[in-house]
Amino acid sequence: MGLAGAAIAENVSWWVVVLAQVGYVLCGCFKKSWTGFSVAAFKSLLGFVKLSLASAVMLCLELWYYTIVILMLYGSTPDVTMNEFKT
User: Which domain of life is it from (predicted)?
Assistant: First the structure.
């Protein structure tokens, strides 16, 4: 199935993870592991948001860097392939 098959397989695997986590929370077998929503869950949310934003900026800069390098080299050396840019 090629590229489409790989995309479908990845999508299915992520949905299996989501459904397994929802099933874990809703099954009722592990009542002591999750007692419900509380205000304490949001106590240190600001630190998590700061870390997430820094990570997102780093990821965007990495992707933009590769895009800019590819665009700069596109006209000068036509035999440059994507395999040369993989890390």
Answer: Eukaryota
Burial class (CB in 10 A: 0-12, 13-18, 19+), 46: exposed
State which amino acid sits at residue 28.
G
Amino acid at 37: F
pTM: 0.44
pLDDT score recorded for residue 25: 80
Nearest to 62 by CA among 34, 79, 87: 87
Cα angle 24-26-29, degrees, rounded to a multiple of 5: 65
